[in-house]
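FORM 7B: Structural annotation worksheet

SECTION A. Query
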Amino acid sequence: MKATQVSKENGVVKFQIEFSKEEFAEALNKAYLANREKFSIDGFRKGKAPRKIIESHYGNDIFWDEALNILLENGYFDAIKEMDIEVIAQPKLDTPEVKKDEPVVITGSVEVFPEVDVKKYKGLEVEKMETKIGAKEVNEELERVQKSQGRMETVEGRKSKKGDTLVFDFEGSVDGNVFEGGTAENYELKLGSGQFIPGFEEQLEGKESGEEVDVKVTFPEEYHAEELAGKDAVFKCKIHEIKEEILPEINDELASDVSDFETLDEYKKDIKKNLQAKAKETDESVMKDRALEALFNSNEVEAPASMVQNELENMIYDMNQNLAAQGIGLQQYMEWLGQTPEQLMEQSRPEAEKRIKTRILLKNIIRQEGLTVDPAEVEELMKEFGAQYGMDVEQVKTMSGPDTENYFKEDALTKKAIDLIFENAKLKDAKAEKKDKEDK
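SECTION B. Predicted structure
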């Protein structure tokens, strides 16, 4: 097989793929073997007639279309690699003129990834972020750690209060009829958590273990179960146990229990250092997003309709997957929103176009700057990805298929392009920006 790029104009490549007569002959034989069962010829059992006999009955070209499909099945992708082009749509192929015992030449055209000259990607103005970690954030983290080390203890000799956790049975009824989903045994509820409908938890405060309580509530008008919305209900409750959370003191002992430090002061310094490092990462991530926004706003670029459509379909697919994980169907979700599939697509179109235009800009910056990644960088990315799911690099390759390395390579190149844009951005203090506007 030999592939030749004939021309490239307005984002469309015209090409020619030539298959040798030997390749075509092999494809013809494969087509015959795959389809001979379909032919019944007198004197032969079904599927056993020789190819020449079938061709003499149905014409020499009976297997040609199938043979061309066989040639293109792998040959087209090999041709793309040989021509070193990145296609963004299905090719349009011309009907080839096929002659027996001669090479087969297939011509066609295909849309390719747009090449544009990106001019404004250095010196972009980005609002500076510099989060400072202080005592408030350190204390909040200490309280989180303190809570993680807490334990629940059964309360003796006092009544329940807000913040306690009750272990109780309940049975709910409306108009004397027990309703589905309104009954449970040994249920654990933290009073004041807002887990139950308004008015429920407050009626369980000031009660004792072993006490039986009738909790009277009214379901909200907008309650998700229509048959209960706005209805008065009674929950018969039996309290089995009252528990309270016991938290350790925030002191040197806690610090030594949860860290490698002996004193609280040392532990606080370490917490501040780690929180500051995380804050810096978060700030940088936000600023890079803002740099991409500035890149998009500073450069006009056309987004091919085929790429936008593919992105739209991917967005809807991802939305469907995310909803399914929550037990919600896409159709049900659209009904809640009062939308049709067409309206959802149109609503998502501006975001799809923005994503595609940003991708085009980044990819052309990579080309213009000659950015590269070495195999070791790609390997490291696959290793990091695999570590999240308990897999080694080979398992990642197997799971993701033959294009795995190329996918991670593209990801690494994109990150390098974003880093380049950010490193060359002008970080502007928000206060200074506000003053500039006031001066004007």
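SECTION C. Observations
Residues 218 and 232 are 4 Å apart (CA to CA). Confidence is low (pLDDT under 50) at residues 433-440.

SECTION D. Sign-off
Analyst initials: ____
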